[in-house]
Write a structure and sequence with these properties.
Length: 65
């Protein structure tokens, strides 16, 4: 397990407003869900969870079609 592998970012109008890093994916996903629930309706919000080891975006809010 890589320390701080999962990176969560909240941006407002394209500018970083909050960030967090976790070593466990399950923990990072719970935090992602919490951020969406707490801040997901803010104008211009974008929340992304990235696996920094692979560079892959695991999930994002809002969902882009």
């Amino acid at each position: 397990m890589t320390a701080d592998r999962y990176h969560l970012t909240l941006t407002l109008d394209g500018r970083p407003a909050m960030q967090g890093w976790w070593s466990r994916e399950a923990t990072a996903r719970r935090q992602f869900t919490a951020w969406v629930g707490e801040r997901g309706e803010m104008p211009g919000v974008r929340i992304t969870l990235v696996d920094t080891e692979t560079g892959r975006t695991l999930t994002a809010w809002p969902k882009v079609p």
